[in-house]
Amino acid sequence: MTLRGAVALIGIGEVKPERRMDGRTALGLAAQAARECIADSGLRKDEVDGLITEIPTGNPTVLADYLGIRPVYSTGVQMMGASGATSIATAAAAIHAGLASNVLCVVGGPAPGGEHGGGPGAPDYRRQQFDAPYGPVVAANGGYALIAQRYKYEFGTTDEQRAAVAVQQRFNALANPAAVFYGQPITKDDVLNSRVVADPLRLLECVMPVGGAAAVIVSAADRARYSPHPPVYLLGAGMCVDHDAIPYAPTMTTSPVAVSARRAFAMAELGPRDMDMLSIYDCYTITVIICLEDAGFAPKGEGGAFIESTDVTYRGTLPLNTHGGQLSFGQPGLAGGMSHVVESVRQMMGRGGERQVRDLDYCFVNG
Amino acid sequence: MTTQSYGLPVPEPNALTQPFWDAARRHELVVQRCRPGSHLFFYPREYCPVCLSGELEWVAVSGRGRLYSHTVVNQPGDPRFQSRIPYVYAVVQLDEGPRMVSNLVDCAPEDARVDMCVAVTFDDVTPQISLPKFRPA
Ligand SMILES: [Zn+2]
After folding, report:
1. Domain at A26-134, CATH homologous superfamily
2. CATH architecture, domain defined by A141-365
3. Does a structural domain hold residue B7?
4. Cβ of B16 and A68 within 8 Å?
5. How many domains in chain B?
6. Which residues 55-84 on chain B approach chain A with CB closer than 8 angstroms?
7. Closest residue on chain B to A200 (Cα)
8. pLDDT: is A297 or A15 the higher one?
9. Does B9 reside within a domain?
């Protein structure tokens, strides 16, 4: 299977180069090229469903947010001078694989004399002017506190329900000697009595930053059967970006998982009921509740009650984050999200040891 | 800038955002609107996030809205805010639609409630900069 004939390039956009661009922002230049390109292609903006970027201001989420688009496939490429070509090839693969239909590729440059004129790494004006003066909470705690607060208001979810996430995942970590909180059981009261970090979130509802790393090897299916462990086949995948900064998210209580999970299930021709085990991203307790709902494992607003009434430990009816989740395993930076993938593969291969989930055929992972 | 006496981060306007801060200095809250579609939006951009038009203008809004969500800050990311804790970091949804990050003031932190009505008030933090903040209305 090759990409030959699978895609076509249908539009271009380019900002006229200038030696000085006083008053412009690098992000604005990238948006300008994107806008021209969309117009040139004849597509409506909402038909653009993929985004690949290499921009001085960071992740593709920044440009998606700025343009007001909601790509179901997006990625950054960081390939220096080869970023343009790489983005085209990546787009082709994504389209051929069914991940998106119209992928916008944007490589941005600096705005000399304007913002980010000196290249990457400068603080962006949105943060500097419209967030920092108001004293945001340390790390990501503030954003997720906003989500938890809004969620409580809309759905009446209790602090006890969020605590149940932390308690059940800690139970799993007690069977994982690699977890930072191995050997330290907690109760619901421990969670509720822990220090408020960012109202309403308490300390035991937030990940512990740690060092670490994680990796997975993906091989062609026809080669995988020669590998020493049982191969774990990818049956479906989906993505979605719908905001960069939480304050400006379309809604704080429905995540882009609502879209990405639906797409993954459709590709796999499976549904939530077919899953034997879940690995749900858990930077905070509230994240698990919202993602469970958005992926279709509980109705909207009932994720908290679902967690309270369901045994989601590795011995339970729907095992969730059997390594303890990042809440109990630890969050080794960006490798924290990968820990969910590694644990899922480990379990699917039957190498879960004491915490091995039985009768495991299908597993759901989100990041 | 008299940042020394104020002691907290002060916005540094750029060409894009200068009209916002000029208006704030006059104690007027403005957001951007595109001419073709009359779409209102915030934070400031060079293109409308709804229709991608670059024909934009600044328009005054009522300054009234509701508290979309908030958190009481006891552990600020920037240590300079330590002297101000506890305070309310807030997301306000203006009656006209756009959301903005701000602080809820003139209100005990424990009295903050999601969806409460709020109105803008301006904090003159330096001779050049007035920060829009919100109080119960
Ligand atoms: Zn517009």
Report:
1. Thiolase/Chalcone synthase (3.40.47.10)
2. 3-Layer(aba) Sandwich (3.40)
3. no
4. no
5. 1
6. 68-78, 81, 84
7. B71
8. A297
9. no
Which CATH number does the domain housing residue B26 bear? 2.40.50.840
Work out the pLDDT band at A138, boundaries 50, 70, 90.
confident
The tokens describing B124, both together, are 């003159």
What does the pLDDT read at residue A1? Answer: 60
Sheet holding B40-41, edge to edge: B40-41, B30-34, B56-60
Identify which of B15, B76, B100 has the shortest CB distance to residue A138.
Answer: B76
Residue ranges making up the domain that contains B84: 16-136
**What gap in Å lies between CA A304 and CA A78, rounded to an integer?**
39
Angle between helices A60-67 and A26-41 (to 10 degrees): 60
| A148/chain B closest Cα distance in angstroms | 9
Q: What is the pLDDT of residues A64-113, one digit of tens each?
A: 999 999 999 999 998 888 888 899 989 989 998 989 999 999 998 888 87
User: Which residues of chain B are within 8 Å of residue A147 when distances are taken between CB atoms?
Assistant: 69
State pLDDT tens for residues A233-260. 999 999 898 888 899 999 999 999 999 9
User: Which distant-in-sequence residues (6+ apart) come within 8 Å of A121 by Cβ?
Assistant: none
The answer to whether B46 faces chain A, any CB pair under 8 Å, is yes
* Ligand 1 ion: Cβ-proximal residues, 5 Å cutoff: B 34, 37, 39, 48, 50-51, 53
Q: Considering the domain boundaries, does residue B6 fall inside one?
A: no
- Sign for the CA dihedral angle at A239, A244, A245, A251 comes to negative
Examine domains A26-134 and A141-365 and report if their fold is the same: yes
Q: What separation in Å is there between the alpha carbon of B54 and the centre of ligand 1? A: 8
Domain range list for chain A: 26-134, 141-365
Residues from chain A that touch B23, judged by Cβ atoms under 8 A, are none
Which residue, A77, A79, A75, A78, is CA-closest to A97?
A: A75
Shortest distance between the Cα of A353 and any Cα of chain B, in A, equals 40
Structure ipTM? 0.92
- The DSSP symbol for A44 reads -
Residues of A with Cβ-Cβ distance to B102 under 8 angstroms: 134
Task: Kindly determine whether residue A114 and residue B8, on different chains, have CB atoms separated by under 8 Å.
Answer: no
A126-129 LR contacts (CB < 8 Å, sep 24+): A126/A245, A126/B43, A128/B9, A128/B11, A128/B12, A129/B11, A129/B12, A129/B13, A129/B17, A129/B21
Task: With CA atoms as reference, report the closest residue to A300 among A291, A309, A311.
Answer: A291
Q: Is residue B2 part of a domain?
A: no
B9–A133 C-beta distance less than 8 A: yes
